[in-house]
C-alpha cells in the first residue's frame, strides 16, 4: 500500500502544470467539453523521480521506454472534473486488459480510471478503449521516436515537431510540460468524440515556461 501511494504521488507531480488549475472534485459523468491526452516522456519521469521509482520496472536499466500514456482527461474550457464515480468502484480484470501496453503500470491505469475515467460517462472497458484510440491517433515525431541521446528543445519547437507529424494538429491544440529543465510530457487536446484535435486555450497557455529543456534519452 505504501509503495502504491509513492507511485501515485510521483505521477501526481507530473500533473502539476496548470491542469491543476480549476480542479473540481466530483461532477456529472459525461458532462465535459473535450479530452486531453497526456503522454509522459518516461525517461524524464524516471530522471525527476528516480529516488522513488528506481526499483520499478518502468525505470529499470535497459527498459528503454519513451512516451507512455499518463492519462486521458475529460476537460472543460476552464478547469476539469475529477473523481466523478462512486467511491471504491474499480475496473474489472477484463476491463484492465484493454489498458495493457498503454500505461506503464497497472496501478496507474486504475488510478487514472478513478480520477478521470469516472468522469467520462463510459464504462471502464470503453474508457480504456478510448485511451487506446486517442493514443493510436498520435504520431510521435521521428526525432523523439528514435532518439538515443539527450537532446535540448524549446517548447515551441517540440510542439511544431508534433504538429508536423500529425495532420490537423496545431500548436494551440497542445502544451508541453517540463520540470527542473527536463521534459515531463506532451498534452494534446481532442474533441469529445475523439475524431480530431481541437483548440484548448487554458491547456495551451499552461505549458512549460523554461527557455529550453532537456529531453533525457532512454536508458
Describe the structure.
This protein is of the alpha+beta class and 219 residues long. It has one domain (2-215): Ribonuclease Rh, Chain A, CATH 3.90.730. The protein is built from nine helices and eight strands. The chain has helices spanning 2-14, 42-48, 50-53, 93-97, 106-115, 124-136, 142-145, 155-165, 201-205; strands at residues 23-25, 34-41, 67-75, 80-82, 151-153, 174-179, 182-191, 213-215. The strands form three sheets. Strands 3-2-7-6 form a four-stranded antiparallel beta sheet.
Architecture blueprint of SSEs:
Layout lengths: L1 H13 L8 E3 L8 E8 H7 L1 H4 L13 E9 L4 E3 L10 H5 L8 H10 L8 H13 L5 H4 L5 E3 L1 H11 L8 E6 L2 E10 L9 H5 L7 E3 L4
Parallel strand pairs: 1-4
Antiparallel strand pairs: 2-3, 2-7, 5-8, 6-7
Short description:
By secondary structure, the chain is of the alpha+beta class. The chain has helices spanning 2-14, 42-48, 50-53, 93-97, 106-115, 124-136, 142-145, 155-165, 201-205; strands spanning 23-25, 34-41, 67-75, 80-82, 151-153, 174-179, 182-191, 213-215.
